[in-house]
Amino acid sequence: MDIRNIAIIAHVDHGKTTLVDQLLRQSGAFREGQAVAERVMDSNDIERERGITILAKATSVEWKGVRINIVDTPGHADFGGEVERILSMVDGVVLLVDAAEGPMPQTKFVTSKALALGLRPIVVVNKVDRPDAEPDRALNDVFDLFANLGANDEQLDFPHLFASGRSGWADLALDGPRKDLSALFDLVVAHVKPPAQAARADEPFRMLATTLSADPFIGRILTGRVESGRLRVGETLKALSRTGDRIEQFRVSKILAWRGLAQAPIELAEAGDIVTIAGMSKATVADTLCAPEIEAALPAQPIDPPTISVTFGINDSPLAGRDGSKVQSRVIRERLMREAESNVAIRVEDTPGGEAFIVSGRGELQMGVLIENMRREGFELSISRPRVILREEGGETLEPVEEVIIDVDDEFTGAVIDKITGVRRGDLVEMKPAGAGKTRIIAHVPSRGLIGYHGEFLTDTRGTGVLNRIFHGWAPWKGPIQGRRQGVLVSMEKGVSVAYALWNLEERGRMFIGPQEEVYEGMIIGEHSRDNDLEVNPLKGKKLTNIRAAGSDEAVRLTPAVKLSLEAAISYIEDDELVEVTPKVIRLRKRHLDPHERKRMAKSA
What DSSP state is assigned to residue 78? Predict the structure, then answer.
């Protein structure tokens, strides 16, 4: 069968997964009357809750005798390790852009990777039926973006469509019939070239593994595009590492290919198709699966290095082991190693004591998703404050810098610029009106300056600002950056919190806990209104007397406690504090530092 392999690129919430839903529906992938969930490609619970794509997933549709393999790529740069591998499997990309917002940072990140690989883009201006849509401006911005990213003439001469993914139509003209997505299907078939690998069908079999997963029935499975040759079930293959070293030889137990949403077993895999192979025990991502006579490995796409690190440790608080079933360091290590094996953007190192592990990755969101997944699996953990990873080049210390794009109401522009260029040591790159009383600010800010800034940003902009960030590059160390200004309220007792005590403590700051919650010595129960830490007693009840008088018994009216989300808690803490994560609760606490660690922290600050 004639094949086209495409990836769909879009910024977070620009409608990519919704468009794929409609492509599946209109191609006949669902039978008539079949009950299908909305955003069917978001199979992970966290993806559905947050409305973001975390894991790259493939699907396949047929259109007029052509099989189109579609890869749904993550929209956030923190999960870019997925993107870099996935793009090596496709021959074209569909770039989806919001007609009101235009190309955003995550669009820029993934598009730069696609253009560098020489892929020819198709641009779809989505959500043109929005009242604030400006499709012509969005299209001009896309052209400018391609030019800035060094696109060649063929890539700059891109075809474009206007669409509404939710309504299920795409047209070549803005005033088209708005009936269905047939124009998009036809354009993909006409514009995207068939895989060049199809011409190498008679050569020995070779495939580069791009994603790793496990099936409870068939075990370890690897997915990739067949670069040359054919493969039948039962044949023998060998796995080569990036450097060409032999890893193992194995018999292929099953070959799977995407047919609609499900993977179906097939007997023959042919060059150019995207397939999944089972039977190996050691081979992993970026390895070459090939015929026994092949000696050279296929070149693997280099992965951008991690920029931040977080320490994962056992939960050693007085309340440890009550909620979770997986609390031992050995079990935590096994889980982290499994994650590092399937996600090449994550790196795991043991600490000297063996009780904690340094996990390095792309950003706070990637770390937050990993911790949330482990939490739901029954793990209890203690998490440190994220730290940026520094580089030494030519005797100079370099730190990661991120490009920040902020859309904010005009009245809050001054406060935002003051924070990112003054306190956070960023450099202002561009500032321009974005229409409707808003200003767009583009700045280059050190990654460590953005840790913990998002909550402060929402406060400064009264919740109306939108902040997007993406890794920009490495720059010389910008000097110390001020951390959190407020101190914390630390419990000095162990027991159950009392409403009367919390009511009296409200004048000291805002509370993170409510009444009748278990606390222990060293647990952080609130934020102090001043810059020093304060030990308090949340267990202190009211002294009872036998005197009764009108007005002596004041009603206890508590301000609702501030409940920090996982990412907010991780970015809130300082170096001498930890986040205690269990399947049911998130707590903050002070940690005991030995003199060597104190000295190291003072030096890094």
Answer: G
